[in-house]
Design brief:
4 domains
Length: 507
């Protein structure tokens, strides 16, 4: 269903909805201008409707609108976790060269969505409501499957004989859903709408099938998918209102639960018996899992932002400070103290955890954050020195160290650290933003503008990127080679922007 590849109405504004409808309608218009007889039969007919480059263009515009309209979770640790989890799942199948970007939306609703170009968003509500990493992974695998199976394009293909007005009406109805969607269907063409719904059901079944195989190959219990479906189904029976948004775009039926349960049982025999009973995300140890720690972290962050969560009641305000205290509870207590600005109390709890697990990045990064918030920048740097040697170019540890160095008036060390991180390829837009601070503090004004230009470029904000590179060129002093580099970069960006606007790829 198209709505599975776009944001549900509850999550977007009308402007974003109209932008997406317009973009897709424009591409459909191009399709109508080409006779079917002129298209070569090269296998996947969906790929004839839109090239990977065109889909990427739509994906970039999609993400620009998402950033403007929704609240993205900026926590580095949480986003790094969700990206790693998504990559782990996607690596289990042939993605046909498709790359994925996984990100978190600060929203308490239970929801996830896949946008064009492999952009997959996960709401904090979904993460907090999942009982295990396997349940969370089952939803992400399902969304990956929608992208890999190219359901958006295949839905467009089924509509290629429609007029643009009809296509736009059906697309809007699918995204709007509810009474509004029903009204649109009724006032346009119920027959074509029903045809689209049949495609939707088929796509859901296919995404379940591909997703559950992905889940099992990644060594998760395949029963996590039907288990999560059953949990959602039970919620809808007792809730006339506040139905999980995931069900509005991914309806769960008894037959769907039965199908995934039967397939899970089959896959358990095929995959799970060879794992010696060891399943990812379902191990039982005295230590907290990464999934549990991220849940606790997102819960605290949500509370700090005033976002209600169902998990908040699990945060215990105070517990004994002995080493036998459950790690997860102790971590929650530490984060609660940190959230209240009680740095000494948070420090004592985190110290206990680090003594138990000296190399646990979640504990080390939380301790460093606490030191930075308490203006003890040297302590944060010293705390992360050894871990950075063990985990070179780790995103969370590197960014925290660089931030502490900048605040400690040591921008050159921060600059070197960030440049090495960027060269490694394991960076985020925030890496360039910190680099810009380090450059500016070092008196390199031109380099600071250049770093911000790269920051905006990673977000595909071409106009802002070009503006900052032009500022970098203007501030450049007596460096002829650098002047040539900046001019070349500006020309490159302008050419890329032109391609984005005109769609003339490769020209």
């Amino acid at each position: 269903m198209i709505q599975q590849l776009l944001l549900p109405l509850a999550s977007i504004s009308k402007s974003l909805l109209l932008t997406l409808i317009l973009l897709l309608s424009l591409y459909l218009a191009d399709i109508h201008r080409v006779s079917a007889s002129t298209l070569p039969d090269i296998g996947n007919s969906a790929e004839l409707l839109m090239s990977p480059e065109d889909e990427k263009r739509i994906g970039i515009e999609f993400m620009r609108q998402v950033r403007y309209q929704l609240k993205l979770e900026e926590d580095v640790s949480s986003n790094e976790y969700i990206q790693q989890l998504g990559n782990k799942l996607a690596s289990q199948i042939d993605t046909r060269g498709q790359t994925f970007t996984f990100f978190i939306i600060s929203d308490p609703s239970i929801n996830a969505f896949a946008g064009p170009g492999g952009f997959i968003g996960i709401h904090t509500g979904l993460i907090l409501s999942s009982k295990s990493e396997g349940e969370l992974a089952s939803v992400i695998a399902h969304e990956i499957a929608h992208v890999v199976q190219r359901h958006l394009l295949r839905s467009m293909e089924s509509s290629k004989n429609m007029t643009l007005a009809t296509f736009g009406a059906i697309l809007a109805a699918m995204i709007l859903g509810g009474e509004v969607g029903e009204a649109v269907f009724a006032s346009t063409l119920a027959g074509s709408a029903q045809s689209q719904l049949s495609y939707s059901r088929a796509h859901e079944q296919e995404a379940d099938r591909v997703g559950i195989e992905m889940l099992a190959r990644a060594k998760y219990n395949p029963n996590d998918m039907p288990n999560f479906f059953e949990t959602l189904d039970r919620q809808t029976r007792f809730a006339q209102h506040n139905i999980p948004e995931l069900l509005l775009t991914h309806p769960v039926t008894s037959s769907r639960i039965a199908d995934t349960r039967a397939r899970a049982d089959l896959l358990a025999k095929t995959y799970i018996e060879n794992l010696d009973g060891e399943l990812s995300g379902n191990t039982t140890t005295t230590s907290a899992s990464q999934f549990e720690l991220i849940q606790a972290r997102l819960d605290i962050l949500s509370q700090k932002m005033g976002i209600p969560t169902e998990k908040s009641s699990l945060i215990i305000p105070e517990k004994a400070e002995n080493r036998k205290t459950n790690h997860l509870k102790l971590y929650k207590v530490a984060l609660t103290h940190f959230n209240k600005g009680e740095h000494d109390k948070a420090r004592s709890k985190l110290k206990l955890l680090i003594e138990e697990e000296p190399s646990r990045i979640a504990y080390l990064s939380a301790a460093a954050e606490n030191e930075i918030a308490d203006s003890k920048f040297s302590a944060a740097i010293n705390l992360l020195k050894e871990p950075l040697l063990t985990y070179p170019n780790n995103l969370t540890l590197t960014l925290l160290t660089a931030e502490a160095m900048i605040l400690n008036k040591n921008p050159q060390s921060a600059r070197n650290l960030l440049l090495e991180l960027i060269r490694s390829g394991n960076y985020t837009p925030e890496s360039y933003k910190l680099l810009a601070k380090a450059e500016k503090q070092s008196g390199r004004e031109s380099e600071a503008y250049e770093a911000m230009g790269n920051y905006y470029y990673t977000l595909r904000e071409f106009n802002s990127a070009i503006n900052h590179f032009e500022q970098a060129l203007e501030k450049n002093v007596s460096d002829n080679f650098r002047e040539l580099q900046l001019k070349a970069r500006i020309s490159q960006l302008k050419a890329e922007l032109l391609k984005m606007r005109t769609g003339q790829q490769g020209q």
